[in-house]
Amino acid sequence: MTQAQTQAHTEQKLYTFDEFIEWYPENSAFRYELHDGVIVEMPKPRGKHSKLTGSLIERLLITIREMGKGDVWTIPRESIVKPYRDKSGYEPDIIVLDEETIGTETRWESESIIQNATSVKLIVEVVSTNWQDDYFDKRRDYEGMGIPEYWIVDYAALGGRDFIGYPKQPTIFVYELIDGEYVKTMFRGNDIIVSPTLPGFNLTAQQIFDLALKTGTAEA
Questions:
Q1: What is the C-alpha to C-alpha distance for residues 154 and 170, in angstroms, rounded to an integer?
Q2: Residues of the domain holding 73
Q3: β-strands 120-126, 181-187: how paired?
Q4: Nearest CA to 43 among 54, 22, 28, 25?
Q5: How do residues 89-124 score in pLDDT, each as one tens digit?
Q6: 3-state secondary structure of 136
Q7: How far apart are CA 30 and CA 128, in angstroms?
Q8: H or E stretch covering 141
Q9: How does the average pLDDT of the chain come out, rounded?
Q10: Is 43 left (phi over 0), alpha (psi -120 to 50) or beta?
Q11: How far is CA 7 from CA 28, 68, 170, 206, in A?
Q12: pLDDT one-digit tens code per residue, 1-45
């Protein structure tokens, strides 16, 4: 995710998820998330973060089409994921949704809100300077929801040493939900990403990191 700045509120109140959605301004130029009751303003992704995220979406869509899932798996432009805790709500950098099961989402059509893990095939967060959100809060909440697969793409090696070691290296983590808990696999350099959800995805970790530097349209 991008560098987050806490939204100032003169009343200093903590918001519930529904209060956050009611507050959320229509047609806003900015993205917002709710973190433990605090509304957080998310600046638009720029530079390498933006290039990597946009190019990775293209690559994921190519893989989805090659798997024959192009008509049922989609990547929306925006969505808000509501975890079980009532005072948080996240807008993932990338989310792959299942059109066959999204009908269970009573708030999707009107508010772009996802509440059920059955609607989600994959969530990807691209790490920025507020890396703790991706490694701690979101990992915990996506696991608690039962999201089957979660990627952390730490292309700038910003995460803590407990996660990416020392010296720090760009790393991708794939978390697979097994028996209700995430099992983590780490990928670096020329390691080919192994995705339970997208077995046809054959990029290496370095090829994904290089997307942050690319220009033009992604090739199939």
A1: 6
A2: 45-210
A3: unpaired
A4: 28
A5: 999 999 999 999 999 999 999 999 999 999 999 999
A6: helix
A7: 16
A8: helix 139-145
A9: 90
A10: beta
A11: 14, 42, 30, 35
A12: 544 445 444 456 899 999 999 999 988 888 899 999 999 988 666
Rounded Cα–Cα distance for residues 151 and 177 (Å): 12
Q: How far apart are CA 48 and CA 43, in angstroms?
A: 14
11 located within any domain? no
What does 39-67 look like in DSSP terms, one character per residue? EEEEPPP-HHHHHHHHHHHHHHHHHHHHT
Secondary structure, 3-state, 85-130: CCCCEECCCEEEEECCCHHHCCCHHHHCEECCHHHEEEEEEECCCC
Buried b (16+ CB within 10 A) or exposed e, 173-197: bbbbbeeeebeeeebbeeeebebeb
Residue 162 resides in a domain: yes
Count structural domains, the chain.
1
Question: pLDDT at residue 220 above 50?
Answer: no
pLDDT of residue 217: 41
Q: What is the reported pLDDT for 129?
A: 80
What's the full length of the chain, in residues?
220
* Percent helix, percent strand, percent coil in the chain, to nearest 5: 30, 25, 45
- Report whether pLDDT(69) > 80: yes
What CATH number should be reported for the domain holding residue 104? 3.90.1570.20
- Segment 45-53 mean pLDDT: 87
